[in-house]
Amino acid sequence: MEDDPFIQQCSDFTISDLGHVTLTADDLAGALAHLRGGQQVDALFVDIRLHALVLGGYEVANRAIEVQPRLRVLYTSGTPLSAGMSQLFVKGGRFLQKPYTTAELEHSVALLLQ
Q: Do 60 and 28 touch, CB atoms closer than 8 A?
């Protein structure tokens, strides 16, 4: 889930090129609809800073884990990671700093899904 359409599209293409099926969402309702759709979703890739939500990607991840408890979460942000930010990650959550390269995204997704 990403609120910047360009970044969302690039990330979607990269992850799809790795052989994964992707579902994109522009907002919390869209993300939750995918998760409640009956299929198992393995991972959530979410921007921490989402303008429409007070807690941004943290809120999305927390709500998503309620729907699919085995979900793995890869957080991203243009803001450098601080200790306070990482304390809000769901268990096992990982972080990828923006801007990232295609190779960095591929590596992060591979680590997340191990």
A: yes
Domains and CATH numbers, the chain: 5-113 (3.40.50.2300)
Q: What share of the chain is helix, strand, coil (3-state, %, to 5)?
A: 45, 15, 45
Of 37-41, 45-49, 77-81, 103-107, the range with the highest mean pLDDT is 103-107
The angle formed by the CA atoms of residues 54, 107 and 91, to the nearest 5 degrees, is 45
Instruction: Please state the pTM of the whole predicted model.
Output: 0.90
Give CA–CA dist 78/63, Å, rounded.
Answer: 22
Let me know if 83 is exposed, middle or buried by CB neighbors in 10 A (0-12, 13-18, 19+).
exposed
Between CA 18 and CA 71 the distance in angstroms is 19
pLDDT in tens, 16-29: 999 999 999 888 88
